[in-house]
Amino acid sequence: MPADTSRSDDPDNLSGQGWIAERTPEGCVLRWLTNHPTSRFVSVEAHAQITEAEFEHLRRHPEAGEALIRTYEPVQVIDYS
Residues 25-49, buried b or exposed e (16+ Cβ, 10 A)? Predict the structure, then answer.
């Protein structure tokens, strides 16, 4: 994932150190890479629904992304197998 490149001029997409947040018609989603539960050597994408307030907080404070991720772990993991 890209380095901290949050852009206040993009109303629906944010990115920070190791995370991406998206606002969609279905709601806001935070995505990040994490280690697979059965192997510390395999990274998988994890995601969580976040509130509009959390999305806006990330816009103003992108350094808060890591703390927000810890709030939502463990979460659904996308299985690519």
Answer: eeebebbbebeeeeeeeeeeebbbe
